[in-house]
Write a structure and sequence with these properties.
With 256 residues, the chain is α/β, with parallel strands linked by helices. α3 crosses α4 and α8 packs parallel to α9. It starts with a helix and ends with a helix. Helices cover 50% and strands 18% of the residues. Bound molecules: xanthosine-5'-monophosphate.
Length: 256
């Protein structure tokens, strides 16, 4: 089964389209094991209101992929959730292939990659590894932060049509062409979600980070066409992660 089908099935079963970013502040290196306990505790509390977790350098750097993070991925699976690696792969193909092989070996169901690197000797080797291992590749299309405008939002000339367009429009078309398993579009830009959704239709699900701490609104993102919402600090660092996760889940549910 493909990653989008598995994610959809999990979201239906758990009645949630919330992906929790397990992000925590810097911890003193000598005390970094505390991060593992915190992540486990947050996951235990919030999992009934999630369809997946997303892990970033916040945990892979201090804990290590196979010494700490692999156990968390296993825990997410045991709790009935999928696991996404937010590594934004962005290198040459030979390196990307090895990066993908390690993350998928650790159990991740999908990873995030940057389409700026292009297809040949860039993204293709990642998709090849994903196909072989039946995992997913999610592409950035428009990031959630302000500076996204400088890259994803720049005006470019479409090599195929010769017409001026925006970089993110090209990336949305590429996500469709490459049969990506998801497209990241910041929840902070609902108008971009709407525009990109018209290109992707139902074929590539839109996954939106930026809810909560970055100011993105659940209702606006969902109504514009986001299928899954990524929430990090507003849940992972909340006083009560379960209550916070449930609130986001319920709001998304209502907006749908
Ligand atoms: P917060 O705390 O802001 O966390 O809810 C968001 C999480 O998602 C990551 N992030 C992104 N990842 N494309 C991505 O692939 C994006 O546009 C994007 N915006 C935020 C962020 O690093 C954090 O882990």
């Amino acid at each position: 089964m493909t990653f989008p089908s598995r994610l959809e099935q999990t979201a239906k079963r758990n009645k949630s389209n919330i992906i929790l970013a397990l992000d925590f502040p810097f911890e003193k290196v000598e005390q970094r094991q505390k991060l593992l306990f915190t992540a486990q505790k947050v996951l235990d509390a919030a999992h009934p209101f999630l369809c997946a977790v997303k892990i970033n350098h916040h945990l892979t750097l201090p804990l290590g992929l196979f010494d700490g993070v692999q156990g968390l991925v296993q825990k997410a699976h045991d709790l009935g959730l999928l696991a996404v690696m937010d590594c934004k792969v962005n290198d040459i193909g030979a390196t990307n292939q090895v990066i993908a092989e390690y993350y998928y070996s650790a159990g991740f169901d999908a990873l995030i990659a940057n389409p700026f690197i292009g297809w040949e000797e860039g993204l293709k080797p990642i998709f090849d590894v994903a196909d072989k291992t039946q995992r997913g590749v999610i592409l950035l299309v428009y990031m959630s932060h302000k500076g996204a405008l400088d890259g994803y939002g720049q005006t470019v000339v479409d090599a195929e049509t010769g017409e001026k367009t925006s970089q993110y429009i090209i990336f949305a078309k590429k996500a469709l062409q490459y049969k990506a398993d998801g497209a990241i579009v910041g929840a902070t830009y609902p108008e971009k979600i709407r525009e990109i959704r018209q290109i992707l239709e139902e074929k590539v699900p839109i996954i939106s980070p930026g809810i909560g701490a970055q100011g993105g609104e659940v209702e606006a993102a969902v109504k514009a066409g986001a299928k899954y919402l990524i929430v990090g600090r507003a849940v992972a660092q909340a006083t009560n992660p379960a209550t916070a996760a449930k609130e986001f889940r319920d709001r998304a549910d209502q907006a749908l």
